[in-house]
Amino acid sequence: MTNSQGATKNRELKYQTNGETNEKQVMSQVNEISADEITPVADAHPQTSVFIGDTVNLTCEVHQSTGWNFLFTTPFTKTEYVETTGTKTITSVRVSDGGEYKCRARKSDNVNVLTQYSEPITVTVHDKPTLTVQPQMSVFIGDSVTLICEVHQSTGWKFLFITPSNPQSFETSETKTKTIRSVQVSDGGEYKCRARKGENPHLDTQHSEPIRLTVKDVKPKLTVQPQTSVFVGDTVTLICEVHESTGWKFIFINPSNTESTETTGTKTIRSVQVSDGGKYKCRAGRGNPQVYTQHSEPITVTVQSKPTPEVSVWPADHVFRGETVNLRCVINGGGVSSWQYSWYKDSIIQQNKLQYYTIRSVTESDAGKYTCRGTETRGSQYSHISNAVTLTVSDKPQTVLSVSPQQWLTEGDSVTLMCEVINSSTGWTFSWFTVYTGNSLVNKDDYELVSNSSRGVKGIYTVSSVTVKHTGVYMCRAERGDPVYHTDSNTQTLWITGVSPSVSLIIRPNRSQHFSSESLSLSCEDHSNSTGWTVRRYTHKLKPCSSSDTRSTGTTSNCTIRSLNTSDTGVYWCQSESGEKLYPVNISVHNVNVILDSPVHSVTKGDNLTLRCLYRDKKPSNLRAEFYKDGSVVQTTGDMMIIPTVSKSHEGFYYCKHPERGESPKSWISVRGDSQMKTRSFNMITFLLAVSPYLLGTVVLIVKCCRLRGETSL
């Protein structure tokens, strides 16, 4: 016997025992017996598969009779929910609402009458669709993008994509993907999706969470290392950068529009040449088929020959101790706007970064070879090393004043004073000075700037038409540099005579060389019986011959020095009250044993010339002496030499030498033409080397001028 049969039997016995036979009892018995055999039908509307937020209606139906209450059992609790109708509504379902549901019915008027449980139904609650993008949400123009709308819990869906270009409508896809090939900037924006079961729009899911697609208009950035301006032989690296993503290959376009592809963003050009200069640009590509970015902004690479600096030196590369020297490093070309400089002396770097290198108060230790090199101030370029400039440092310079054509002139002649710094011709300016030579006594050497020549041109000062007043002692000064460095010359004397002199200067003894302690007589003889002529002299100072010197006696037109001294060496002449100066002669006094008896005046061409060796004491027993001209022996017999019919070839330095008494000082013998006797009143001046220090420079220079002149005597 089955369980249901046993239950029926028991109920029958129960009812029989009670003895209840009325109709109601009979109906109750019938109902109770049939309820146990009833199985309700449970269902979910609109469907058992729903999404979060949807509304689900659970129904429980008993088709055989009415008057039932319904008990719903949920998956998350054991409690039965009683509904008077056969419907239980779950609004805004959640994932936790998913699971197995069942129901049974209970008679509304008898809680003891219960049906069997329905077959369970399973309600599935799905989350929203998930929208993703491949390869990424930030892409570049030309990339390919795939949108993926996924419903993970079931299949059989259609997918609806809402795009930013048309947010009020949708695009339907049978698959969960939507691909946009070669995206443009207009494709950027917010995307959403939803899923639909079949063709019923009422079975759509909710919208996915929106995603934002960013489409970038990419332009790579091209840079150059170390810089855009380089020199031939340098190394240049081009760098093409796309910062937003990876996976790019880089295409470099050179000035001739030739492309080269690099897997990295760099392209290196080693030992660049001028031909490598020009505009470069780049772009990046990726994918298959390959998608390219825009071209970068072009960048210009300038390739120039590496410059070689030039070193200039001021005032000159040959300077003198105490001068200030300025070296300057000049770099032309190269396209560099700002240089930092390095200086080298004999290849050893000096502590100076400036364009100018100044050496103050130079000494011999500063001499050497100087070079420079430039390095770009805000870059890495550098120049070649310059060619060397050799700086020579000498002791105090020798400045020489010379006269052309000669020192002894007639009124109306032209004369030029030339000032030269020996072995240095750069950067000098010249000033000209004279010593006052008026009638009044001069107690010291006062040099005054010549009024019309504050600055000479190339060391030359010319007087086109001399007058007697130009007679005097001249000196020049050379200056250069900042601060100014100057050097003074020797002195030169100009003697200007009138056209028809009426006065003669008589000298006894009539020779240019004299022994010390001897006596000397000079007189101005006036042939026209005029008065006012005096004998004047210039030794260390300008003064009359009959000055307070106790060794001098005589009137103003006569002068006798009873005991000569070497300090009496100097120039003697006749001077009138008006300042006219005539017949300058050079008298030298020597403290030696032998002198040369040579004429005071120049020798006239064609005359005879007689030279003698004179001795301080009595004549030696051996009178054989040697005579020299310009250092060469010209006669070896006797103590006298006669040159008949002299010519210009006989000009030169003469001296004599005795084997026992020694050597005489040297004298310069000059030869003049006959015409000069008619127009000029010149005296023959015999020049000696052993003169006072004050006149030595003048004597040497006059001799040099005589040699160069070639036709004019002194």
**Strand portion:** 35-45%
CATH topology of the largest domain: Immunoglobulin-like
CATH homologous superfamily of the largest domain - what is it?
Answer: Immunoglobulins
Task: Classify the helix fraction into a percent range.
Answer: under 10%
Characterize the largest beta sheet: strand count, sense, and whether it forms a barrel.
Answer: 6 strands, mixed
Round the mean pLDDT to the nearest integer and report it.
Answer: 81
- How many distinct beta strands? 61
**Distance N terminus to C terminus?**
179 Å
Q: State the shape.
A: rod-shaped
In summary, what is this structure?
The chain is mainly beta.
Characteristics of this structure?
mainly beta; Immunoglobulin-like; 6-stranded mixed sheet; 7% helix; rod-shaped; disordered N terminus
Structure, described:
It is a single chain. This protein has 714 residues and is mainly beta. The chain folds into 6 domains: 23-125, Sandwich (Immunoglobulin-like); 127-216, Immunoglobulins (Immunoglobulin-like); 221-304, Immunoglobulins (Immunoglobulin-like); 310-394, Immunoglobulin-like (Sandwich); 399-497, Immunoglobulin-like (Sandwich), CATH 2.60.40; 593-714, Immunoglobulins (Immunoglobulin-like, Sandwich), CATH 2.60.40.10. Helices cover 7% and strands 45% of the residues. The chain is built from 4 helices and 61 strands. Strand 46 (534-538) and strand 47 (542-544) form a beta hairpin. The chain starts with a helix and ends in a 5-residue tail after the last helix. Mean pLDDT is 81; it is low at 1-33, 437-444, 547-552 and 675-714.
